[in-house]
Amino acid sequence: MRKISKLLIANRGEIALRIMRTAKEMGIQTVAVYSDADVKAPHVRFADDVVYIGLSAADSSYLNPEKIIEAAKISGSDSIHPGYGFLSENAEFARLVQEEDLIFVGPDHHAINIMGDKAISKRAMIDAGIPCLPGYQGSDQSDEILIAEAKKIGFPLMVKAAAGGGGIGMRRIDCLSELSNSIHMARLEAKKTFGFDTLILERAINRPRHVEIQILADSFGHIVHFAERDCSVQRRHQKVIEEAPCPVMIPELRAKMGNSAIGVAKAVNYIGAGTVEFLLDKEGTFYFLEMNTRLQVEHPVTEMITGHDLVALQLKIAQGESLDLKQSDIKLQGHAIEVRLYAEDPDDDFLPCAGPVTKWIEPSFSGIRVDSGIESGSVVTPFYDPMLAKIIAHGSCREEARRKLIKALDNTALFGIKTNRDFLIAALKNEQFINRKSTTGFIAENFAKTPIQNKNIDENIYTNCAIAAVIQHISAMRHYQSVASNMSSELLDWSSVAVLQSLRCYEINGRQLIISISSPDKAGGSYRVSLLEHEINITVLEITTDRAKLIVNGRTVSAIFCIEDEKLIHIAISGATIFKLTNIIAGVENINIDATASIIRAPMHGVIIGIEVTEGDEVKKGQRLVVLEAMKMQHSILAPIDGSVQTLNVKADEQIATDDILLEIEN
After folding, report:
1. Is 12 tagged catalytic?
2. Which CATH number is correct for 209-454, 3.30.470.20, 3.90.1530.10, 3.50.50.60, 3.30.70.270?
3. Which of 235, 294, 340, 421 does the annotation list as catalytic?
């Protein structure tokens, strides 16, 4: 048995912070590593010791095994926890750590090598008698063989990167014409992210549930499972909402899946925390997908229904301690649901967003847990995964947890960049989700053609603008009072001659709204707001620096806000609306945006990793022009029209910003 005294966390953001908290509770010193992009990150400040590991790009820092190990030596660490993502499932990294006589908080490199490769692991599971989907996991990776095997399997099918996870290098293919491009893009993503471009093929199950079993195994041969999590709500094969237990689970099925998961661990002599993932069809038949040889993003829901700290158990196992748990010791209490807050735009195909966080406000009440890696003033870069935080609710039953989570999200706001907060609220309120019928097709079936944010703004635009105007007006009055000499608050909004009127002009969704605010109540606190033909009465019950409670036309409304300057206000209003308004009464700045179809602009921040045309080339509508990498995903930029490439403005490996002109096409 070898005690851990100083632990280096080879990760960043919320998972680095989460591991450090448990380590510190156990009396273990913590070491953070950081890149140029994370110099001021919260995980760096929270650690007991820090080591710089390189440039912002992940392959120059967090994905560089030699730099991580050197950081452990410099800091005097005796152990490394990889978190999830980055090097957490890199068998060579685990081997190097152990060769340096450092404790690796995870399984040994043999288990990672088998389970980290979907092709190898699937062959091993078939040999072990674990139920698997029909597919191809052979060593011949030529396009010809993959296409031939795909025809044998039939459509729909999945093409998957054999290495890694998180939906990277994964495509669903519904017909033969999609196959060639999907193979090309999956290979590109896999090679760029994991360093390997081996692919497997699997039959696709229509509308399955994604159900996973959490297991822990110690070095004495004891293995227990901590029941299941349902992770069916996904977009681009990346999980968005997770819950435990699975809403349709029955004891007999849990026992079967749990025993299969333990069988998977036994087949590879597994030690540590791991997750065995299955697809569950509507008949109750389940199939092995993969095993993640690490802690999962969604581990908090398991912790909340079992009462066990999985990180603490990981550290104890890594120290050579026994689990000292029997299967009968794992009791389930209530229900937990987790949502992942991403920097992304749900109304633009969930494309990732980057930029500064003007204000981060998180909920704080009983039954809610927030694991975040950001704060006000943070900068979300295009170099890493766009997940910013996890918000988890626990209740005595599923419905209680769901309602608590909606309330928590209503009291959550991130201003400065777009997030999926409004989408998460809409998903939790969806009848299919409420009725326990969500499958992996949930998002595509319910939200593919339904914009979330703009829809909510449009439905309540006049009321929302009136609320924003009153909040900004009061904040301005308070500011004037703070810089004035001996001005009583009773004189705010007061006039001895007539009712004062304040004018504001807001621009939102391309519209300009002129708003008149008057305060007929000389006692203060009540306002009449006029815009177009609408008149809205607002009474302010309470207002702080970032929260307000008001009565709007007789109904109570809560708002979270951030006034960035005298013109710009960011606001989140109860009922799932987050937006920003610019007061342009002092003058309008005209910004000309070339909307011509032939101007091809970058849809997001990222790096150009492939250019497939040159100036003068003739292209067809839908042809791939450029490949852009942003936040670990590869995106094909396609030609919107037939024509000739006239101007090419970018080159390979160039960093570009949202709306940068990539090229121009003349038809």
Report:
1. no
2. 3.30.470.20
3. 294
